[in-house]
């Protein structure tokens, strides 16, 4: 269902837009080992008549997308991620949010019909509440291998998977990434789903167009029915 053509955006049935992006600011805590977020004011409005900021950060900081080449040696880069994966119907599934909790197949399979019909899924654990603190990067919930394989496997094969945590799995980080990325399924990490309660919505994921890179910061929006 194409939803971004002008007439649908002006349609009264799609009038609420929710920002699903975490705020980025200088010195926000980043994953240990990653480069920090630096924003230096290079031009001063009082002396030079305009403002301009020098920005420096890792490509996997804040709300961002992982392309297959992030983990897969000869995997596709951002360039080959289709708009069809990034824009369209999406299913939100609430999952356990306690530190070190598991997101199991049973948590997802009860939403099988909604996941299949949307083709894109985001998992809401509530972890985004910790954004801006060092705790954000510690002990976040993890999807199990069985659940990841079910989402990525031929039977379901979502087009896009999103998490409101910094990684899909703490313990099996590389292996779980591979399950999705080897199947060509882009992963959106560090979503902010706190203001989203509707289980079915339209998602718009807009990564920076970094040529041939393995990931990029994204603006992510949720388009909701007016009644939601
Ligand atoms: Zn990443």
Task: Provide an overview of this structure.
- The protein is α/β, with parallel strands linked by helices and 228 residues long.
- It has one domain: Putative cyclase (Glucose Oxidase, domain 1).
- The protein has seven helices and twelve strands.
- The chain has a seven-stranded mixed barrel with strand order 4-10-9-7-5-11-12.
- Strand 9, helix 7 and strand 10 form a beta-alpha-beta unit.
- Helix 6 packs parallel to helix 7.
- The longest helix is centred in the C-terminal third of the chain and has 10 residues.
- The N terminus is likely disordered.
- Bound molecules: zinc ion.
Concise overview:
With 228 residues, the chain is an alpha/beta fold. The chain has helices at residues 6-9, 45-48, 83-86, 105-109, 112-118, 145-152, 173-182, and strands at residues 16-19, 38-43, 52-56, 64-66, 87-94, 102-103, 120-124, 142-143, 160-163, 187-189, 200-207, 215-224. Strand 9 (160-163), helix 7 (173-182) and strand 10 (187-189) form a beta-alpha-beta unit.
Tell me the strand percentage band. Answer: 25-35%
What is the CA-atom radius of gyration, in angstroms? 18 Å
User: Termini, distance in Å?
Assistant: 19 Å
Please, what is the average pLDDT?
93
Percent helix among the residues? 10-25%
Count of DSSP E strands?
Answer: 12
The first-level CATH class is given as: Alpha Beta
Class of secondary structure makeup = alpha/beta
Largest sheet: 7 strands, mixed, barrel
Which small-molecule ligands are present, each listed once?
zinc ion
Low-confidence stretches: 1-10
Question: Treating each run of at least 4 consecutive H or I residues as one helix, how many helices?
Answer: 7
Q: If strands are numbered along the chain, what order do they take across the biggest sheet?
A: 4-10-9-7-5-11-12
Shape, principal axes of CA atoms: globular
The CATH superfamily turns out to be Putative cyclase
The CATH level-2 architecture is identified as 3-Layer(bba) Sandwich
Indicate the multimeric state. Answer: single chain
Look up the CATH topology: Glucose Oxidase, domain 1
Secondary-structure element series: HEEHEEHEEHHEEHEHEEE
């Amino acid at each position: 269902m194409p939803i971004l053509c002008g007439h649908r955006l002006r349609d009264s049935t799609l009038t609420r837009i929710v920002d699903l992006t975490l705020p980025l600011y200088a010195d926000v805590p980043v994953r240990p080992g990653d480069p920090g977020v630096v924003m230096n004011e290079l031009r001063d409005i009082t002396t030079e008549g305009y403002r301009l900021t020098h920005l420096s950060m890792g490509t996997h900081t804040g709300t961002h997308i992982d392309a297959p080449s992030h983990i897969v040696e000869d995997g596709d880069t951002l360039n080959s991620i289709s708009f069809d994966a990034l824009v369209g119907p999406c299913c939100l599934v609430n999952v356990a949010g306690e530190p070190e909790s598991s997101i199991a197949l049973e948590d997802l399979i009860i939403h099988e019909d909604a996941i299949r019909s949307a083709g894109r899924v985001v998992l809401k654990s509530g972890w985004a509440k910790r954004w801006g603190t060092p705790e954000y990067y510690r002990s976040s919930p993890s999807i199990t291998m069985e659940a990841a394989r079910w989402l990525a496997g031929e039977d379901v094969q979502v087009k896009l998977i999103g998490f409101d945590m910094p990684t899909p799995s703490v313990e099996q980080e590389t292996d779980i990434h591979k399950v999705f990325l080897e199947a060509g399924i882009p992963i959106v990490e560090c979503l902010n789903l706190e203001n989203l309660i509707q289980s079915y919505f339209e998602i718009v994921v807009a990564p920076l167009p970094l040529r041939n890179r393995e990931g990029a910061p994204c603006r992510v929006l949720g388009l909701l029915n007016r009644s939601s």
